[in-house]
Amino acid sequence: MAAPTTSVFQKNLYDGKVAFITGGGSGICKGIAEALMRHGAKTAIFSRTLEKLQTTAKELEKVTGKECVAYAGDVRSYPDIVAAMKKCREHYGKIDIVVCGAAGNFLSTVEGISANGFKSVIDIDLIGTFNTAKAALPYLKETKGSLLSISATFHYVGSPLQAHCAAAKAGVDALTRTLAVEWGQYDIRVNAIAPGPILETVGLAKLSEMSDESALKRIPIQPCGRINDIEHATLFVLSPGARFISGEIMVVDGGHWLTNSGVAPDSAWRHARL
């Protein structure tokens, strides 16, 4: 298991920084918010349900001693994200870091998924990332900041039951590289992290319902990854130590995609046909 981030990175590494994080109310992005706050940053978290976000914000403030504000909205709505970032800028005075982490996913074959279901995942994962990045540009220009997206590895192989998410995340990767090229002139770095199977996440819980343990045992580095591993990668790639890294898709999966054939166990296919 990864060491505590505070035993690896300076505790004041992000002092004075402000981070805006979509999807920050739970899972990996909540972990990212907490990690940045533990190392000095103030944060704003954005998701659809204000009450849940406010509860999370108070929890994060309690465990880190840093300020966290909550803004509700939908990343699929460009006006929502623009309004939230404006409020964040007015509240904190600036935005240094933006994390595009809002995501939606479920398990389905292409045969079984509806056109609306496919579009919904594209809208949240890819269009939501574009909306967030577009809205963030004026503020990141001011601070010469960083944009970080959360991708995945489904599109590296033919991952069954994940065509919708694989297509969306492939788009996120392409967008990341293009923005890195276009926004380098503003001294803005743009990168992505592609987590593999991560314990404590809804995504892995869903996959585990329909597959045997052999899939996770094929991950070269054991035991399975945790949110803490993504926190470490985030703290590095957003830090001054990664000053010359931009347009990178950092895979954090213990080597999983190298051994992942993309063929689902029989139990997965049975589950998908139910």
Automatic annotation (TrEMBL):
Keywords: NADP, Oxidoreductase
GO cellular component assignments: peroxisome
Record field: catalytic activity: a (2E,4E)-dienoyl-CoA + NADPH + H(+) = a 4,5-saturated-(3E)-enoyl-CoA + NADP(+); a (2E,4Z)-dienoyl-CoA + NADPH + H(+) = a 4,5-saturated-(3E)-enoyl-CoA + NADP(+)
An example Gene Ontology biological process: fatty acid catabolic process
GO molecular function, one term: 2,4-dienoyl-CoA reductase (NADPH) activity
InterPro entries: DECR2-like, NAD(P)-bd_dom_sf, SDR_fam
Catalytic activity, EC: 1.3.1.124
Top-level class of the enzyme under EC nomenclature: oxidoreductase
Gene3D superfamilies in UniProt: NAD(P)-binding Rossmann-like Domain (3.40.50.720)
Pfam families named in the record: adh_short_C2
UniProt name for this protein: 2,4-dienoyl-CoA reductase [(3E)-enoyl-CoA-producing]
Organism: Geranomyces variabilis
Lineage start: Eukaryota, Fungi, Fungi incertae sedis, Chytridiomycota, Chytridiomycota incertae sedis
